[in-house]
Amino acid sequence: MTMSRVKTILATMLLSILLLVTSCAQKAPSRFDQAQQASSQARSGQAVAKNATQGSQFNKFFPPSGGGYQRVYTQEKKGFAQAKLKKNGTEVAVLSISDTSSTPTTAAKYQQSGQTIAGYPAREIGSTQTAILVGKRYQVKIQSRDSSFTASDRKAWLAKFNLSGLSQLK
User: Fold this and answer.
1) pTM score, two decimals?
2) Which of 8, 86, 111, 139 has the highest CB neighbour count under 10 A?
């Protein structure tokens, strides 16, 4: 065997070993791979609890239109229902009922509440929202959309919901 032939065989073997080693090595994930994995894991998490109440069941507990106010349902999905409250065509508030079985930390925020509305624990959320917890499970919330709709208006409208009926919902 000539020396050049030995060099060729040796170079071929080294190249083969190098290809084998690098193809089997696990490459570090790029920042894009890591972001994709985090996004996929977040999506696979369940956003709404399986036992959450259907939003359509909440509609009958909303206060009816009247007294110059019009209630317009805007959203309904599992665990949540929402309606706009309008006066003279202007949206003054958003009314909602949500099932906190999907967000237990929301229900926990009412445990230390010293305030009640219609006998249910209540809390102010910022300067434009008032909410109560009914039956230790359902959050009934009103958000002012117009400065004319005050905190006392929100409290009065919370009391207009069929709260005793909602507390019986399972």
Assistant:
1) 0.71
2) 139
